[in-house]
């Protein structure tokens, strides 16, 4: 039988160390909504989402009550919209209508985000893909709950540089269209290389075409729990350090597995995966940066950061894979700047730069995440940063992503406020030497060689 | 068996156990195990109970226990056993 200490340990994790289930994400395939006219398509989309996800929010709340653990977000991911709208959307404005329908459906069922306003263009863009990408600034500025992502590269097919160039411009336009709220639209747009089909985390979630009709994916989180556990391992050797992280990750993930199975049972929807990612929030003590500090760095960004992060990420996975029968999604440590107080502090202290963040993304998903840059950054510079990050993913066979926010009207030293889970971010300097001639080349970067690894 | 863990934490006062146990008895909830200590005037109790016979829905029980706690100035939390079981047992 469960003993007193175990009960207390679990409840302390929940009450004092911010252990929570970050998201229950219901993936819904909309492939069967395709129809002859855009009106019929929109109606079918609305009907399907509001039917399948009808009980999502109440189920999340029921699980919260039964186990006494917060389920922070209930969300929906859908089939990439470029595929659903390909038949009837003849211009970017047509796609905006789909975005509005999705937004309306999200509000009806009460989820805070719906992801999948997406296009998969790692090798080439169809007309529909291009229209969807061009519609992103309008779609994100005229809706509240839509999240958008574009997969522009993969290890198998290389990098679509035409899409990379286009997205630099799209990000700037999105920033301009949402300038009243510190360009918040860009916080809901992710550019991917090797995007996973079953990621439950926003803004990059979409329901891949290889998935079932509907599926439950769960993201757990507990940076505070890992940090507290590591406090007890101060000064110990690497073996003890790694064991501590592994054991903690196991416990956290077991809770995720339980919640995922229970949500799947209550909703009558198949269980997909548990995502092992350590995801921070702006709350004090819920920070990945603080784990790195506990491991022994003054601030993240100091020499040794990449090694410490590699170790952390690997141990989280090793502990997590045994705890869940199906692991998937991104499953790595997230290092967003704005959503993590410790990262913000590191940037303010002058310890953490964009270049060091890029190095850190080589050993941990997801990538350059929630980074505020000056509003006057050139589109080609944004594309250059995206291309670099995509190359890291392509060559290292891992998921990488870019979520940059060129904050309209703000420059280095200013602060961008996004509010809620998105937090706030100091505007970081960007290398302003030109890469225009490189970005202006058309076509794609070929797939990398899969042998002679060095 | 439908086991639930009830934790009661708060400033010690007369009759905490009586109030909680009365509520449980009234709702046909059987107590399987009680462990209770006082640390620096703070009352700390963990109960393992079986709610199988109870007519009330779990969420109602949890909410009413929480209310009972507020009445006597302690925090009462009811959680299904699985969360502890899964976390601490392989």
Q: What does this protein structure show overall?
A:
The complex is a heterodimer of chains A (454) and B (90). Chain A has 15 helices and 13 strands. The mean pLDDT of chain A is 94. Chain A is an alpha/beta fold and 454 residues long. In chain A, the strands form two sheets. In chain A, strands 1, 2, 3, 4, 5, 6, 7, 8, 9, 10 and 13 form an eleven-stranded mixed sheet that branches. A two-stranded antiparallel sheet of chain A has the order 11-12. In chain A, helix 6 (127-142) packs parallel to helix 7. In chain A, a hairpin with a 6-residue loop joins strand 11 (415-417) and strand 12 (424-426). Chain A has helices at 4-16, 38-52, 56-67, 81-84, 92-109, 127-142, 161-177, 223-231, 238-267, 288-295, 305-323, 341-348, 354-360, 379-396, 436-439; strands at residues 20-28, 71-78, 114-120, 146-154, 158-160, 189-193, 214-221, 270-275, 367-374, 400-407, 415-417, 424-426, 444-445. Chain A folds into two domains: 19-193, Anaerobic Ribonucleotide-triphosphate Reductase Large Chain, CATH 3.20.70; 221-250 and 276-445, Anaerobic Ribonucleotide-triphosphate Reductase Large Chain. With 90 residues, chain B is of the alpha+beta class. Chain B has one domain: Alpha-Beta Plaits, CATH 3.30.70.260. A four-stranded antiparallel sheet of chain B has the order 2-3-1-4, sandwiched between helices. In chain B, helix 1 runs antiparallel to helix 2. Chain B is globular and about 35 Å long. The relative contact order of chain B is 0.29. Chains A and B meet through helix 1, helix 3 and helix 9 of A and strand 2, helix 2, strand 4 and helix 3 of B.
List the uncertain runs of chain A.
Answer: none
Distance linking N and C termini of chain B: 20 Å
Question: Which CATH architecture of the largest domain in chain A?
Answer: Alpha-Beta Barrel
Give the total of beta strands of chain B.
4
CATH class value of chain B: Alpha Beta
Using DSSP, what is the number of strands of chain A? 13
How far apart the termini of chain A lie comes to: 52 Å
Assign the CATH superfamily of chain B. Answer: ACT domain
Largest sheet of chain A: 11 strands, mixed
